[in-house]
């Protein structure tokens, strides 16, 4: 068995060996921070973060959000016992306030700041700078044209060129043998305005998320609403919001007018939703009558009140087994379809000797479709009827645990039976009184009222975001329609002592039609009225060279 002698290669005398991995300089925390900051503030990273923000916002529109509809979130978790808790832990039910969405949001903000600040400096230097020097070979520019001029008038050609370019809104610099001109500085200004506007859009959204609030409340016609947190059915506010920030106003819903289409075409379609409300701006102020309609909100000291829904509230009176009225008033039922088949629960926890409760449907226009299922044939109240199932049970001790007012928890209760031992089914028209079995009392449908759902909120950053969007559109228009362009003019001696004026042009952005024509027009203008071009001159002088590039600057 033989062995091979492996030796390191020898280096020349006095030569320094190449550095190994251990001899390379350490990056250090400053270098690492600089590297991370450079990557974060690159335009590519900003685009990736903007796309990531758009993708991250998709679950917020597909999955119910807890701050908008907590009931739907609870129903989703109940219907998806495996997926629901996972979504809850990941923050899918509150996407826009989740840590991962906030992280993308803040990184995008930092990335935009890092992109904009250096560009502002570059743009400021460009605005203060001079037009670039005249290239030695104008013929290599993308647009180039020549024209003969009067030899005796050669000294005045450059002056006429400078004057003509100023009329075309160029920034002009006259040199000894040429004129350099540039325009289109507002294009980059438009880009900066657009990106700065994006920052202000994000800032406005952040202010609204921190200091804004939104809630909703169902108010029966004839009743009122006071702008305090306990009056809301659901309420969500930003982290910097305080209850004392609520404006102390009050509303009373005086009336609610609704009209539906009764013709054959689009029967049942909504035609009018209008509420008359009595508004009190502050304690002790004089009430004012206002009109509230869909898409026509009411503004009360900066707080916006929207009309977003309506329905029916049957008025019932329940008398218990002792002959006392244990409940009387309207009960809100929630619509389930376009014809306002409404479901709800009626509870009389103070009834004695047994507490009673009911669940069922209120139909504004009850029809018999032969299926045995209560349905409404029209959204307006033409033939109102109340369909109920009854339950009873021993009095319940109040424990302070909130319950859903729109549904009935029948735990610990017994379903009422009729004389045949079947579940009790009650059908009540307006004015009907039904006697409950087992001396549990009576229930009467006194009539019905309408209710409206009000959404109350304040987004203090919305004005900033809307203004920023307008400026972003303006900046985008500047960047799209303004063409940065450079033009140079020079005179030179031709054959036989003639003088030729040279004009070259360069578009600094994506070329659009017109550069060659503008260059040729300027050359013709500078040639003077005594030099009209013939066909030969035009073929030789006014020539466009589409294959030329910025190499002419060399």
Features:
554 residues, alpha+beta, 7-stranded antiparallel sheet, 6-stranded antiparallel sheet, 11 helices, 29% helix, 29% strand, elongated, disordered N terminus, disordered C terminus
Question: What overall geometry do the principal axes of the alpha carbons give?
Answer: elongated
Major β-sheet, in short? 7 strands, antiparallel
Q: Kindly report the average pLDDT value.
A: 85
Approximately what portion of the residues adopt beta-strand conformation?
25-35%
Instruction: Work out the radius of gyration.
Output: 40 Å
Structural class comes to: alpha+beta
Description:
The protein has 554 residues and is of the alpha+beta class. Helix content is 29%, strand content 29%. The protein contains 11 helices and 24 strands. It is elongated and about 125 Å long.
């Amino acid at each position: 068995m033989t062995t091979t002698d492996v030796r390191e290669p020898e280096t020349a005398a006095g030569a320094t060996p190449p550095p190994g991995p251990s001899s390379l300089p350490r990056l250090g925390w400053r270098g690492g921070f600089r590297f991370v900051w450079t990557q974060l503030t690159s335009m590519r990273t900003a685009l990736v973060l903007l796309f990531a923000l758009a993708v991250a916002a998709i679950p917020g529109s597909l999955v119910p959000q807890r701050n908008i509809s907590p009931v739907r979130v609870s129903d989703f978790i109940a219907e998806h016992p495996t997926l629901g808790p996972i979504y809850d832990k990941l923050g899918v039910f509150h996407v826009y306030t989740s840590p991962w969405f906030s992280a993308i949001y803040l990184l995008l903000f930092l990335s935009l700041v890092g992109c904009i600040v250096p560009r502002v400096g570059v743009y400021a230097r460009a605005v203060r700078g001079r037009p670039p020097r005249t290239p030695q070979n104008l013929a290599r520019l993308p647009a180039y044209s020549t024209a003969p001029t009067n030899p005796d008038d050669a000294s005045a050609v450059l002056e006429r060129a400078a004057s003509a370019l100023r009329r075309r809104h160029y920034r002009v610099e006259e040199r000894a043998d040429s004129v350099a001109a540039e325009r289109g500085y507002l294009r980059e200004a438009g880009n900066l305005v657009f990106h700065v506007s994006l920052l202000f859009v994000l800032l406005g959204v952040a202010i609204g998320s921190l200091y804004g609030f939104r809630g909703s409340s169902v108010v029966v016609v004839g009743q009122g609403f006071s702008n305090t947190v306990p009056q809301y059915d659901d309420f969500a506010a930003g982290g910097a919001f305080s209850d004392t920030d609520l404006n102390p106003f009050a509303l009373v819903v005086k009336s609610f007018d609704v009209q539906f289409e009764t013709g054959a075409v689009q029967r049942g379609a909504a035609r009018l939703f209008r509420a008359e409300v009595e508004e009190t701006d502050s304690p002790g102020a004089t009430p004012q009558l206002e009109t509230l309609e869909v898409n026509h909100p009411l503004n009360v000291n900066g707080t916006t009140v929207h009309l977003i829904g309506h329905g029916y509230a049957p008025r019932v009176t329940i008398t218990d087994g002792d002959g006392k009225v244990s409940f009387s008033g309207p009960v809100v039922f929630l619509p389930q379809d376009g014809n306002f088949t409404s479901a709800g629960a009626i509870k009389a926890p103070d009834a004695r000797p047994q507490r009673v409760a009911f669940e069922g449907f209120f139909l504004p226009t009850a029809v018999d479709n032969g299926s045995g299922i209560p349905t409404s044939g029209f959204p307006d109240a033409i033939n109102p009827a109340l369909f109920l199932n009854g339950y009873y049970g021993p009095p319940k001790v109040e424990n302070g645990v909130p319950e859903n007012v729109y549904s009935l928890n029948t735990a610990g209760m017994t379903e009422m039976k009729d004389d045949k031992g079947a579940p009790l089914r009650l059908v009540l028209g307006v004015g009907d009184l039904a006697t409950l079995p087992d001396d549990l009392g009576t229930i009467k449908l006194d009539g019905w009222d309408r209710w409206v759902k009000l959404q109350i909120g304040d987004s203090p950053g919305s004005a900033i975001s809307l203004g920023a969007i307008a400026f972003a559109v303006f900046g985008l228009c500047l960047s799209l329609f303004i063409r940065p362009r450079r033009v140079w003019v020079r005179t030179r001696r031709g054959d036989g002592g003639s003088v030729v004026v040279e004009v070259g042009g360069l578009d600094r952005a994506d070329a659009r039609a017109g550069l060659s024509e503008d260059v040729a027009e300027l050359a013709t203008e500078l040639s003077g009225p005594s030099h009209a071009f013939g066909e030969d001159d035009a073929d030789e002088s006014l020539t466009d060279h589409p294959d030329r590039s910025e190499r002419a600057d060399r």
